[in-house]
Write a structure and sequence with these properties.
Blueprint: H1 2-9, H2 13-17, E1 24-25, E2 30-33, E3 36-38, E4 41-43, E5 53-56, H3 59-69, H4 88-91, H5 98-103
Antiparallel strand pairs: 1-2, 2-5, 3-4
């Protein structure tokens, strides 16, 4: 689910791992990126000031994270089981392209949600 959201909005994995519930607006259809995960910590140090931004998410893509979040008490949307920030290095895929999507049998109807960057 993390990679579907990342691919659909063109956001870095580290920025999504630093996303808090308070940053998910309008029923999870808009996110406000203000911080990122570095190692197992969350920091507000982004590479540039332009990375602080609002991003829109399609409703089809926004529904699973909203359900996934459920009633968990952690403030992070994508946290570890213990509520700690996840390490981006353990979540990263070196090359997540349309070619690798086909190689790993991701359905073709996922294409409209993919924004290559």
């Amino acid at each position: 689910m993390l990679f579907i959201v990342a691919g659909s909005i063109g956001c870095r994995i580290a920025q999504l791992l630093g996303l808090e519930i308070k940053d998910a607006l309008d029923d999870f259809t808009t996110v406000h990126v203000t911080q990122q995960a570095k190692g197992t910590k969350v920091t507000s140090e982004l590479r540039t000031v332009n990375l602080v931004r609002f991003l829109d998410i399609r409703r089809e893509v926004a529904a699973p994270p909203k359900e996934f979040r459920g009633s968990r008490m952690c403030s992070l949307v994508f946290s570890s089981r213990t509520g700690e920030p996840r390490n981006p290095r353990t979540c990263a895929i070196a090359s997540f392209t349309r070619y690798s999507m086909r190689k790993h049998a991701v359905p073709a109807d996922a294409d409209p949600f993919w924004v290559s960057h």
